[in-house]
Amino acid sequence: MRMIRSSRKLPSLPYFWSLIDWTLPSINPYKGKLKRAQSIQDLALIAKKRTPKVVFDYVEGGAVDEIAYSRTRDAFSRIEFNSRVLRDVSKIDTSEKILGKSVDIPICFAPTGYTRLMHHVGEPAVANVAASKNLIYALSTMGTTSPAELAAAVPNSRRWFQLYIMKNRSDSLAVIKQARDSGFETLVLTVDTPVAGLRYRDNRNGLTVPPKIRINTVFAIARKPIWWLNLFTTGKLEFAAFRGWDKPLSQLAGLIFDPATTLKDITWLRSVWKGPIVVKGIQSVEDAKAVAKLGVQGIILSNHGGRQFDRGPIPLEILPEVVKAVGNKVEIYIDGGVMSGLDALGAIALGANAVFIGRAYLYGAMANGEAGVDQVIEIMRREFENGMALTGATNISEVRKNGARIRSK
């Protein structure tokens, strides 16, 4: 058999020239890594290098042995979609209505404390991304920006306010008034914190706001000088709703978490807040039914990101049953462990109206401030849209119609 050989030609210099990437390397060691980041985990690795250990551990960690968070992530990894083919998916619509108003994609920003620890701009940076992307941002009672400050910084954002029922109800009323006067549209009542969870990572690190200057802090400053410079030059770091408090988180939690909170307090809250109420921290079908009867507008299935009870239920695993029980009465959201667009898509396919992300956007903030939060949303949007197309869905209604399941191990 005669062997075929390729013909040789003189090399084309213009063609060779066109193959060369003439981009100059950046003097910023993180710029190239940020540009190459493909997933939230890539951003988490960058965040770990840019922030002190105590800060990164606060975001990454959970309660006790951190089993609840591990199980939550495992549940998301076992989502299997029902895929349909031979569908026209040339146009994808990710928009959805949440409490009567449209968002561009059903991914919301969950309330997180200590946000200015992750990046010195803090809550306004996240709210600004939410406003630019037509999404929802929920400000925490334990945020480092007050409701009034956030409203002034990002007046056009769709703002929800997360609330704890405090031991002194007048304290709760004062915070509620701040939210109402600052144009917040919805209260998010967190109910999975009758007492503070045991967060061993934070206790070992001695986490306080502001961070205490100890001997080992000197070495931390040497390793993360830019983070510390930003901390020292951008105003006092404190819980905006509790100005002047500088004791450990566990002590503050003991002040504002009321172990005597019951269903009657939701009825009381409805009497003092005329807007929508969403109850966050539901972990059973029975509680979902009980809360839905009280006239709230939504519930968030949540185990607090595995940061409260380390042997609690996994929200994703009870989601289909809760949707079946009360999905026609209230909107159902889910949070905890949502670390990709496919995680979000899976929860929507299983019946959720929307998902809330926390760790994911904090990794982005630690990695690159507001631009990092924006990058998180764009990564998740790309994964969400790609997943929709590959399952044959062109809108959120079709995502739910196609459905998904959680595979057994």
Automatic annotation (TrEMBL):
Keywords: Flavoprotein, FMN, Oxidoreductase. SUPFAM superfamilies: FMN-linked oxidoreductases (SSF51395). Residues 32-409 form the FMN hydroxy acid dehydrogenase domain. Pfam families: FMN_dh. Its cofactor is FMN. CDD domains: alpha_hydroxyacid_oxid_FMN. Gene3D superfamilies: Aldolase class I. One of its GO terms (molecular function) is FMN binding. Belongs to the FMN-dependent alpha-hydroxy acid dehydrogenase family. PANTHER family: 2-HYDROXYACID OXIDASE 1, S -2-HYDROXY-ACID OXIDASE-RELATED. This is Unannotated protein. It comes from freshwater metagenome. The lineage of its organism: unclassified sequences, metagenomes, ecological metagenomes.
